[in-house]
Design brief:
The protein is an alpha/beta fold. It has one domain: Divalent-metal-dependent TIM barrel enzymes (TIM Barrel), CATH 3.20.20. Helices cover 40% and strands 18% of the residues. The chain contains ten helices and twelve strands. The strands form three sheets. It has an eight-stranded parallel β-sheet. Strands 2-3 form a two-stranded antiparallel ribbon. A two-stranded antiparallel ribbon has the order 10-11. The mean pLDDT is 97.
Length: 270
């Protein structure tokens, strides 16, 4: 089992400017100095990362430079996170074109996982078939991942169509895609993360580990209110053989300290 660290802890999160007017250019981007980030993660004793789609696409024409940079710090790219709206029929083909491009680059850097997030919330409110459209869009995206030999999973996320316990149940009843639980997002959305792990353990192939403070801030593993040890222990007892990605985004404290605390916690408990 590999343990990784999400690079978004070391800089603010943005969407791409071009995506405002061009759907195929839309995506998540973490404003980081990648070399500095890789060094810090490596120094904290971690050798795997997950990055956002646009950070990867920035190396579209010089992917060998990214491979070399990671090699310098003994880092492997374990996974790539992709965000899409998924529910709009007219724009879905452009989103899937982006997915295909990202998957090609993910394969080139020997990544193992693609994590999808999304499910747009309409200004007029959620329509009756939005979850069905989301599931259909995710299934098409997952099929592209399969073409490249990449494991696809869906990450329920605050501020999306898959946030509340009821929404999570509804979405996963409409698709066979794997479930990537982000433990703190599940708890913040009102779910019992352990109960969800028990219900969907046979569909969990990859996990985002994150803790949540009493005041609702994402925080280093083991210092928040979530029983992460209990969830990890359960998943291992249920036969979980996948990998673990630590993600401490939005933390107000020192990101290097958060990384060190979290990596140490993961190594002690996984």
């Amino acid at each position: 089992m590999a343990i990784g660290y999400m690079t978004n802890a070391f800089g603010p999160l943005y969407g791409t400017a071009a995506g405002v007017t061009c759907i195929k250019e839309s995506g998540y981007y973490s404003d980081i100095d990648l070399e500095d980030t890789l060094k810090k993660i490596s120094d904290c004793g971690c050798s795997n990362i997950e990055i956002f789609e646009i950070n990867l696409l920035g190396y579209e024409n010089n992917i060998e430079d990214l491979v070399s940079l990671c090699s310098t710090y003994g880092i492997s790219i374990l996974s790539v996170y992709i965000g899409c709206q998924f529910i709009y029929g007219d724009t879905l083909p452009d989103e899937l074109a982006k997915v295909r491009k990202v998957c090609g680059l993910a394969k080139a850097v020997n990544a193992k996982y693609i994590v999808f997030g999304g499910g747009s919330l309409r200004a007029s409110g959620i329509q009756e078939d939005d979850h069905k459209k989301l599931a259909e869009g995710v299934d098409k995206a997952a099929a592209i991942c399969a073409e490249f030999g990449l494991n696809a999973s869906f990450h329920p996320h605050l501020g999306s169509l898959v946030q509340s316990p009821e929404q999570i149940q509804k979405f996963f009843s409409l698709t066979d895609v794997d479930f990537c639980p982000d433990i703190a997002h599940l708890v913040a959305g009102g779910s019992d993360a352990l109960e969800l792990a028990k219900e969907y353990h046979d569909r969990i192939s990859y996990v985002h580990l994150k803790d949540l403070s009493e005041d609702g801030e994402f925080c280093p593993l083991g210092i928040g209110k979530i029983d992460l040890k209990g969830i990890i222990t359960y998943l291992k007892s249920a036969g979980y053989k996948g990998d673990w990605m630590i993600e401490i985004d939005g933390y107000s404290g020192d990101p290097v300290e958060a990384c060190k605390i979290s990596v140490d916690f993961a190594k002690e408990n996984i």
